[in-house]
Amino acid sequence: MRVCTDAGWTKREECVRDPTGRTPPHGDPKGDPKAVRRRQNRVAGIATIGGFLFGYDTGVISGALIYISSDLHLDATEQSVVVSCLLLGAAFGGTFAGRVSDTAGRRRVINWAAVLFLIGTAGSALATSMEVMVAARIVLGLGVGAVSAVVPLYIGEIAPLSRRGRLVNQNEIMLVTGQLAASVVNAAIAGVSEDDQVWRWMLGVALIPAIGLFVGSRFLPESPRWLVSHRQFDEADRTLHSLREPQAAQEEYGHILDVSRAHRHDARMKPRRYLTIRWVRHLVVVGIGVSLCQQLAGVNAVVYYAPTLLSRTGLSANASVTSEIAVGGMGVVATLVGMYLVSRVDRRPMLMTGQIGAAAAHLLIVALITVLSGTVMSVSVLGAMVIFIFFQQCFISTVTWLTLSELFPMRVRGFAMGLSVFFQWTANLVVSLAFPNVIERYGPQAAFGSFVVLSLLGFAFTRWVLPETRRESLEDLERRLKARFS
User: Fold this and answer.
1) Within 73-129, where are the H helices?
2) Which of 173, 281, 361, 399 is packed most tightly, with the most Cβ within 10 A?
3) pTM
């Protein structure tokens, strides 16, 4: 391995910075650990505004739907379309954004997603018909899909190994905080006014964080791994030295270059051609499986339809909307617990714990609906939903997004993440379309009973198929998985 200096550095992929430190590093020459951590936190904080918008825009509809349905005169099928059209946009937004982020860069795609959030939020808040609402929410969905695919990737690539779990899961914290904020905003606005038009304010509040993401994303550094894969070596070096202590930056830069050099022969291969490579194809299938496991556990059926379902059991519209706060609050608490655990416990045991807990919670909901009635049933079902959200957010969602950010090789990471997110949002769409209709036709016991079975199937997948991804750098993990599945 050649040692490089700033002068005469031509075949850059074949060399690394002088590990003795004689080559002057870019960034903070003192490498103050506190300053480095502050920069890491600032970058992750700006990027995860996208996670907040993801959470707010998917969560706000559950409380707003009651008022939208009344104002725009929507039947059950039309309600499903209004909820689900965002998911359709997200499926394609995630696929497209993941692919584009491999060519245009992670930072640029996050900025473009902010523009979609601005357009979609304004359009949905001002909608005067179902058709306009659906069009605006599809645009909003493109933004949601984009950040769901790219933000975890971006943070995983800029985070050091020791903080990767915490920083990637900061996005999940922001996601559930966004869902909680949506619940609080919905309840506050519904408490101030009973006008059918209050839903416009509920949806329009999202303009504030969308503006924040648009402005903040323009100051984000690009992923150093993406920069190296596109031969922008000086910029990658500067970015690493601004986000690491000098010695750590030099060592990590060397690892990244080693992997880049190992894949020089297929640098120009189109992403879909990678699917002909056995080990890459295997990891993509595993990623799709992880994504499906998260959605088929039923989380978004609870998030989207909890107030509507509880109102059917006898709670008033305002009380049903307020119940969202319990669900959203538990989501935040559970994610904080998950953030603590994920740096200490391997991914697979956490995911399996969540899947067993989710199955048990759904089974409890079935039993409560069957045995109880009236207000007692409403309160009991809400409690069981809160238990489910704990297992989902603490274990399943926390591990899912982190695993997806770690699993794929660098050359195809955006493409593979986008493909996994496409299947995740497609499953979300199917569940959201089917859930209210299954309840209408077969009853809630059948709907929640199906989630019991699907959660147990997810457990089997995790137990026998999913590889462990904790404890290794992205480059070392790529080498190990390649050797294992080739």
Assistant:
1) 76-104, 106-125
2) 399
3) 0.84
